[in-house]
Design brief:
By secondary structure, the chain is of the alpha/beta class. The chain contains 15 helices and 15 strands.
Length: 457
Amino acid sequence: MIQSTQNPAPKFQAVTRSNVEKTHQWASLDPELREGIEVLSLVLPFRTNKYVMDELIDWNNLPNDPIFNLVFPRSGMLEEDEFNEVRDLVRSEAGKPEINAAVERIRNRLNPHPAGQMTHNVPQVDGEPVPGLQHKYRETVLFFPAHGQTCHAYCTFCFRWAQFIGDEDLKFANKEVDQLLRYLRQHPEVSDVLFTGGDPMVMKSKVLERYIRPILEDPELEHIRTIRIGTKSVAYWPQRYVSDADADDVLRLFEDVVKSGRTLGIMGHYSHGVELKTDVSREAIRRIRSTGANIRMQSPVIRHVNDDAAIWKDMWREGADQGLIPYYMFVERDTGPKKWFELPLVNVWNIFREAYRNLSGICRTVRGPSMSAFPGKVHVLGPVDLAGGKALALEYLQCRNPEMVRRPFFAKYSATASWFDELEPLTEADAKFWPGNWDSDSLSEEGIQLTVSSSDE
């Protein structure tokens, strides 16, 4: 790892609802766009930063610029009557309680915690539920450090939007690394720990170290072979690894993880190739990889942002050229402003296939399209013609019931379905792959309980 030399270091400057009007770009926005942002940012979390605004957004390409649509909320993200209700309250200068009541009602409709995250995904230590911990798949535990419950910028599609609206009842978070360590000691089947959020990389290096270092030093945790960090910082604030005051300290911690004999995976959320092409982004990638860590690329297909095979092909190719590993193409989750971003599953599959078939083998590490649904990661294999009729072939890449992993099954063909629960089994034999038909005893024998939680990364 090479010492950082950039001087003077750029300062991180958050842009939120309270100060966006002070940016020089705000005045150039169409008034209708400005009002949409002002209204939507009362319902959905809004936060970006000066780097994203100055380096990643083409302000001459509004409203179609992909990064603009990735970070700025738009009026179409709500049902028309809901948007009009909040807009009219704002225009009439209604009181805060009246606005908050309307906002809360809309948020509750937006499925704030999909895939059973609050109802089926909280494991226990010594009979007590552990907040901020999830364990859905046998090998992987997620941990939500309390100090990492924000991001350098918020994605408008983010399925964890409920983490950022200030409602403690909807937030996963834990300050106590001791609970994580106790749980891991009790579960030797776990090999991977994923630190997620929010974004763990908003934490100072000393705080991040307090969560990671104990795993490296505990002799009872030698079964933990991989530490993952889910982060968008590599795209939204690459200075974190280049010129922030503790950038070198972060990279030394990364080196120590690798020196411990473990794999360190930076699960980089990249939604568009433009995020890979600035000088500081390239330098951040180079410095992270110099520690021995690997960076994997993942994102959902997002209408208005990257719903084009050429975008994915170029992004995966650019990432591989810089030493990144294409990892997952996801399907947009059934939460938040899903209707604004979603595409039919067959469309997403076509985007994946068209991009994939135009890449060399070095990029074909990528998997997808994948739905992180209640039962597990549902891989869309594509449409097929069978004796029973036209169908959609599927498989589980991960599943609450490990016996079902990589066993093909079929749903009735649908040109419009955009999520797993909109599909129907093709035959009675296929119906057993839907969780309502699982044998709970067989799940227990596998050691996977429906009361433990999920790696949706």
